[in-house]
Amino acid sequence: MTPDSAPDAPAEADEDVAPELRRAGATYLLGRLILAPLARIVYRPHVEGRSNVPKTGPIIVASNHLSFIDSIAIPVAAPRRVHFLAKSSYFEGTGFKGRLIGNLMRAVGAIPVRRGAGQAALDALDEQRRLLDEGLAVALYPEGTRSTDGRLYKGRTGVAFLALQTGALVVPVGVIGTDKAMPVGAKMPKLGSRVTIRFGEPLDLAHHGPATSGRARRGATDEIMAAIHALSGQELAGVYNEVPAHGAIEKIKQVLPHERR
Predict the structure, then answer these.
(1) Phi and psi for 173 in degrees, rounded to 5?
(2) Which Pfam families match (predicted)?
(3) What's the rounded Cα separation, in Å, for the pair 101 and 199?
(4) Angle between helices 26-43 and 95-107 (to 10 degrees)
């Protein structure tokens, strides 16, 4: 696969950048202006397939998830503005470090949401749908949470549901090396680590059926994960990346058959 942007590539040319990126707000543009050169110095990123990302229209960028910095690497590498939902706690920190993280999140286009089940999950879904209805790009991790062992876990069906419901194309992404650049639990990134971001060809999942069909959601999810696997080359875990259950009820829920969203 031929890279569209080499590690030491200059700032994006106008013709390689989506119109919405050129019209973005001052905070985002300033953040990108600072982050892009900094990322090239720290991570020496190798970006492939930028031309696979549609410049206009609603898209879902669906990526594997290895590190906190995935949510920085993808927006910086993408040729258009990519919105992703981030824990509201990232925006509420105090002191120098807290404010720095909050400003960093805003600079890369993050939107704060309160995580959890019930209404919080529905609010997050509504926010993502609203962005797609406006013709924007959102980034999601089908695995649900970061992989702590480097393997690629089974995808949850929420991404497919959103794509089938809105008609948005899904751009699969394989991120490589971010777990070495900033391992889970690390407070600071490691200098000199090489990071690769691969954008795959966009997927139209409409042929799987309506969003109301569980079979359609599962089939579309499996297609997304197969595309991500082809880009990342990770070992397949073959199971869901479950958060450890606390309490007897939650442990029972995890062993019962149910559709992961």
Answers:
(1) -135, 135
(2) Acyltransferase (PF01553)
(3) 26
(4) 100
Lowest mean pLDDT among 50-54, 84-88, 159-163: 84-88
**Which residue is it, tokens 């442990």?**
251
Residue-level pLDDT at 95: 84
pLDDT at 159 over 50: yes
In the block, which residue shows the tokens 């939902």? 85
Task: Report the CATH number that the domain containing residue 155 is assigned in CATH.
Answer: 3.40.1130.10
Contact 164, 217 (CB under 8 A): yes
pLDDT, average across residues 171-176: 98
Q: Is residue 231 part of a domain?
A: yes
pLDDT at 90 over 70: yes
Residue pLDDT, tens place only, 208-228: 999 999 999 999 999 999 999
Instruction: Give dist(CA 8, CA 49) in Å, integer.
Output: 16
Residue 99 placed within a domain: yes
Is the residue at 69 inside a domain? yes
What's the average model confidence in pLDDT over 136-160? Answer: 94
Q: Provide the domain limits for residue 37.
A: 3-238+246-255
Per-residue pLDDT at 25: 53
Q: Is the pLDDT of residue 13 over 70?
A: no
Q: Which residue stretches of the chain are H helix?
A: 19-22, 26-43, 70-77, 95-107, 119-133, 158-166, 178-181, 214-232, 248-255
What residues does 61 pair with on adjacent strands? 139, 171
Contact, 151 vs 237, CB < 8 A?
yes
Total count of domains within the chain = 1
Helix (H), strand (E) at residue 111: strand 110-113
Does residue 261 fall inside a structural domain? no
Q: How far is CA 52 from the centre of its chain?
A: 16
pLDDT at 5: 41
Cβ pair 63, 141 in contact under 8 A? yes
